[in-house]
Amino acid sequence: MIMDAAKVHIFDTTLRDGEQVPGCQLNTEEKVIVAQALENLGVDIIEAGFPISSPGDFEAVEAVCRAVSEPTICALSRAVKKDIDVAAKALRYAKHGRIHTGIGTSAYHIQHKFNSNPEEIIRRGVEAVKYAKGLTDEVEFYAEDAGRTDNAFLAQVVEAMIDAGADVVNIPDTTGYCLPNEYGEKIAYLKQHVSNIDRAIISTHCHNDLGMATANSIAGVMNGARQIEVTMNGIGERAGNTSLEEVAMILKSHQHLNLYTKIQSIQLAKMSKLISSMMRMPVQPNKAIVGRNAFAHSSGIHQDGMLKHRENYEIIDPKEVGVESSEIILTARSGRAALRHRLECLGHTVEPQRLDNLYEKFLEMADEKKVIEDGDLCHLVAS
Ligand code: KIV
Ligand code: ZN
């Protein structure tokens, strides 16, 4: 694998981790539509499903392989030969395929999930990676619950998997437990203590149980990870995964990090709507980047500042993510500047005295109606 030190690979798992959300299941046709949209968006890897989990998922992974050509198509498996065989079969039409296999490495998983021991876990992981390596183009290994795995043991696991042939090593914070500095230090520890680490790409896969998925993923890349696993709108198990749109715009707007992705940001708003409607999963209005209010300003102080210069209150030009313009919402918290601006947009130029009168009436109306629409303003001017 050729490495470009500045490139951060975007691995989208909307169709696998995202689709695990109750009520978000898609049929094969819908998954193909999403995969094609992800290809246009510029993701590098699409995790299309977990083929052993059901015949429907197998069929969908196969269909995605036939329908898209640019991104690598990835299929999930446990560290179990039968899973790997089925994943390889589902990937056989992929232009470029990847098997994502792995096993739990934290003390919780070793004892309470596998009733096993550390040596046996490494043995099973190595066996799975070697087996998968002979069946597809690339192998990614995940150390499930790496977030709560002892760093020294995790380094041993990662070293053994890279020796066995893993091209990518995924360090999931499966339970969303790590603090950003802890997760960043974990990646830095692996960079320092795994002798063969430069032969593989380190991947982040962070869950959002404590609202830190995006911060942890960014801490990961700042310490040497070069792949981020994400979902559109941050959907996924429990509180979800790292949001694609958030990491893409963080890296784009912090150019001093000297990191880039291939994401075509102008498509983000449209992509968010597609996922929300297909997966029947509304986006919270205050969601970063793609929420309804992400570029809406409603307090008088902010509106006045915005009207003087957009960058007083916006760090991203909404056009960059495919939103036509920012919005000035008229509420009882709005000031005269916003009212005058809106009236001017509607073709009404008003003198200061008249503006004062209208503003008083506007406030009375806004206290009652909460949000004032253009029709209300026309009514106000006419009365
Ligand atoms: O959260 C997790 O650990 C996962 C793995 C299967 C990669 O989703
Ligand atoms: Zn996950």
TrEMBL record:
Pathway: Amino-acid biosynthesis; L-leucine biosynthesis; L-leucine from 3-methyl-2-oxobutanoate: step 1/4
Gene3D superfamilies, per database record: 1.10.238.260, Aldolase class I
Record-linked PROSITE patterns: AIPM_HOMOCIT_SYNTH_1, AIPM_HOMOCIT_SYNTH_2, PYR_CT
Tree of life domain: Bacteria
Pfam families in the cross-refs: HCS_D2 (PF22617), HMGL-like (PF00682)
E.C. code: 2.3.3.13
Keyword Kinase belongs to the record: no
Keyword check for Lyase: no
N-terminal signal peptide: none
Location of the Pyruvate carboxyltransferase domain: 8-267
Keyword annotations: Amino-acid biosynthesis, Branched-chain amino acid biosynthesis, Leucine biosynthesis, Manganese, Transferase
Sequence similarity: Belongs to the alpha-IPM synthase/homocitrate synthase family. LeuA type 1 subfamily.
UniProt-recorded name of the protein: 2-isopropylmalate synthase
